From TrEMBL:
Ranges annotated as DNA-binding: 124-218
Pfam families according to UniProt: Response_reg (PF00072), Trans_reg_C (PF00486)
Name of the protein described by the UniProt record: Two-component system, OmpR family, response regulator
Keyword field: DNA-binding, Phosphoprotein, Transcription, Transcription regulation, Two-component regulatory system
The UniProt record lists the keyword Nuclease: no
Origin superkingdom: Bacteria
Domain Response regulatory per the UniProt entry, residue ranges: 2-116
CDD domains referenced in this protein's UniProt entry, alphabetically: REC_OmpR_EcPhoP-like (cd19934), trans_reg_C (cd00383)
A GO MF term: transcription cis-regulatory region binding
Length: 223
């Protein structure tokens, strides 16, 4: 998954980015509201962690502009503990959840996982497709109960396919979700990662839909 972290405090921003990246996600960061608004308009994110007290453009304004423009990615807002009015205003502006500062990183990650599950219609932190199991809490994949060793890009690609299993995803769709903003997004490299995944997953797990892209389907055979 690709997550946008919007936080003006450098230390907290770095801590958030590190924790989210450690869970196997691609992370982009913004330090002010104007940069956040721009990234949310032009990039594809699976979720956003958005501080409301931002310079240049406040978080509520950013959120309202995204929703007005039809940007519907899940948004977890961060508020000051005493500012209950901010929580109400954030929810009214279109936020999906909120967390008061200071907070435990474990709680933030749990709430973020819940937003991603809700978006992908997954009922739990364990995602399944035939013999493949993906644990979003531990960033771990099992095939027929055995641990699977994946590179970070292979894990991100499989996560995206798992979240939308059965759907056809183009190489462009996949590259937008596994590469951070500013990275070299050569969609041809997706073909390489798909080839590597196919060698590690049960045969037939990843189908190629000619001219459109790839989709993950259930296949129970041992690779």
């Amino acid at each position: 998954m690709r997550i946008l972290v919007v936080e003006d405090e450098p230390v907290l921003r770095t801590q958030l980015a590190q924790a989210i990246a450690a869970a196997g996600h691609t992370v982009d960061c913004a330090a002010d509201g104007a940069q956040a608004h721009y990234l949310g308009e032009v990039e594809a994110f699976d979720a956003v962690v958005l501080d409301l007290g931002l310079p240049v453009l406040d978080g509520l304004s950013v959120l309202r502009r995204w929703r007005a423009a039809g940007r519907n990615m899940p948004v977890l807002i961060l508020t000051a503990r005493s500012a209950w009015q901010e929580k109400v205003a954030g929810i009214d502006a279109g936020a999906d959840d909120y967390l008061a500062k200071p907070f435990h990183m474990e709680e933030l990650m749990a709430r973020l996982r819940a937003l991603l599950r809700r978006q992908g219609e997954h009922a739990s932190a364990q995602w399944h497709c035939g013999a493949i199991s993906l644990d979003t809490r531990q960033a771990r994949v099992l095939v027929n109960g055995q641990p699977l060793v994946l590179t970070s890009h292979e894990f991100k690609l499989l996560s995206q396919l798992m979240q939308r299993k059965g759907e056809v995803l183009s190489r462009t769709d996949l590259s937008e979700h596994i590469y951070a903003e500013g990275s070299d997004r050569d969609s041809n490299t997706i073909e390489v990662f798909v080839g590597r995944l196919r060698k590690k997953l049960p045969p037939g797990s990843i189908e190629t839909v000619r001219g459109l892209g790839y989709r993950l389907v259930e296949a129970s055979a041992t690779p």
